[in-house]
Design brief:
By secondary structure, the protein is an alpha+beta fold. The protein contains four helices and eleven strands, in the order ββαββαββββαβββα. A hairpin with a 4-residue loop joins strand 9 and strand 10.
Length: 219
């Protein structure tokens, strides 16, 4: 795998930096941040300036695991970024390969989300916040976003960097209890249980990369 892809044989360790991360900005950049954030909030009032874990670095530990160095950071600094304004904020996210009877769960992202609107990805996913245990965060995202409940603990598979939306993705495998669902939020518009070569299109680049490098994985 590439240097920005680390296979895991054991759970990763998060090392929290004692000081919050504040991007270095010129006066013009600071004004652009506030202007862009106001525009995002006006277009989608659901945007909330919470906290996220910004990745300072990822290192193999020599024992089949990795140490992920993170710092507390405001979400708005990530949300306003694009090709013209890069504040070097790189959130840590979780992604689940949810399996059942040899199939994997994919969700089609809503058109209202910031990254990859309308495209299919392995579901669920979410941003890791300061104080979160990533595996526990994934279990919560599974229930909230898909309505399914986990059967057993998630198993860490890899850490991948998504260079298109500039996030680090901590990928886990987990199974679900049954077909029973309690509904889901607006993150996804559709769900599908799939297996290669029947992946739905359009598929996000990071989802295709997960399919190529991490599947098939044992149930």
């Amino acid at each position: 795998m590439t240097p920005r892809s680390i296979r895991l044989r054991r759970p990763p360790r998060l090392a929290m930096h004692p000081e919050p991360f504040l991007p270095e900005m010129t006066g013009a950049q600071a004004e652009a941040v506030e202007s862009r954030w106001s525009a995002l909030r006006e277009a989608n009032p659901a945007y909330f300036d919470g906290r996220l874990c910004h990745v300072l670095g990822v290192h193999r530990d020599g024992h089949g695991g990795a140490t992920i160095h993170v710092a507390d950071c405001a979400f708005r600094f990530f949300a306003v970024q694009d090709e013209r304004l890069d504040l070097r904020v790189r959130p840590l996210c979780v992604k689940g390969i949810v399996q059942r009877e040899g199939l994997a769960l994919l969700g089609r992202r809503s058109m209202n989300v910031a990254g990859y609107p309308g495209q299919w990805e392995f579901a669920p996913g979410g941003v890791v916040e300061p104080g979160d245990d990533p595996a526990h965060r994934l279990v919560r995202e599974l229930a909230e976003e898909t309505g399914y409940r986990a059967a057993g603990e998630p198993i860490a598979l890899a850490v991948l960097y998504d260079d298109q939306i500039r996030t680090w993705e901590l990928v886990y495998r987990l199974n679900v209890e049954s077909d029973a669902r309690s509904g889901h939020c607006g993150e996804y518009t559709d769900f599908a249980w799939c297996a290669e070569p029947t992946w739905p299109e359009p598929m996000t680049p990071i989802a295709r990369r997960i399919a190529q490098t991490l599947l098939p994985c044992s149930a």
